[in-house]
Amino acid sequence: xxxxxxxxxxxxxxxxxxxxxxxxxxxxxxxxxxxxxxxxxxxxxxxxxxxxxxxxxxxxxxxxxxxxxxxxxxxxxxxxxxxxxxxxxxxxxxxxxxxxxxxxxxxxxxxxxxxxxxxxxxxxxxxxxxxxxxxxxxxxxxxxxxxxxxxxxxxxxxxxxxxxxxxxxxxxxxxxxxxxxxxxxxxxxxxxxxxxxxxxxxxxxxxxxxxxxxxxxxxxxxxxxxxxxxxxxxxxxxxxxxxxxxxxxxxxxxxxxxxxxxxxxxxxxxxxxxxxxxxxxxxxxxxxxxxxxxxxxxxxxxxxxxxxxxxxxxxxxxxxxxxxxxxxxxxxxxxxx
Length: 337
Description:
Elements lengths: L5 E3 L6 E3 L1 E4 L12 H13 L4 E3 L8 H10 L8 E6 L1 E5 L6 E2 L2 E2 L4 E5 L3 H15 L6 E5 L3 H4 L3 H8 L4 H10 L5 E6 L2 H8 L6 E5 L10 H10 L2 E5 L12 E2 L2 E2 L2 H17 L3 H7 L7 E7 L3 H12 L4 H9 L15
Parallel strand pairs: 3-4, 3-16, 4-5, 5-10, 10-11, 11-12, 12-13, 13-16
Antiparallel strand pairs: 1-2, 6-9, 7-8, 14-15
């Protein structure tokens, strides 16, 4: 596979490259990322044929959208695919501190959850302004679900249902203001629930279907059957498959560490990069159309591209199956022997 290869969303005339660039780091996620480093990541992506870029108002409290918009609008609009998100309205607020929600030096716009009809439209119009783009190709509802919102989930879910949030999303799609709509979440169950009441085209799923965890396999199979595309994000599971000991943004529990150690053992025996396997695995599933990889600078993205395009022997995937490290029936890449 090449990062520049493309797949089309089954239901919509939207095409994405097999690797996309996730732009949370453009918002100073965890540490300050100078504009020049962000631009280096973008330019490296473009040089290698990556043409799918994902951002959100929340990233850096609008910084990511502003930066990406400046970079991407230097190119012809027809030459790239861009997604952003709704569900938070960014409200001017001078009390925003030096670090908020893991973003360093965020801009003075505080996120306020709002999944209502008017909140969705307000968020969308503000993103148009920041990006300098009238029609983002994909629009995701960002961070909905009971794990995300706890006791307030029902309140926000009703904003989407009885409050008209889904109707606003359908309106934007039907009038051609965006090419496809869906959810961008960390919880596959809320995508499943949404599919029962609203006709989504695509879901960006952070984690949940990775080399490390495939509990969502039946859900993924249903997405493939129904033509709902999956954009795989978080392929490294917060970094534990890329060298650190974090899982779901926290210290990994013992059972996860043991499973990762087992994956490492197979990689070492067969001389396979764990990072390469992690990036390539999700795309073997027929529902998955792209893997979105975050990168802070040109060097990080270059490494991700090398891993993505690395040949992995079929024996590796077979050995994972024999050792019970993959869910039964999980598709594996058709790799060279």
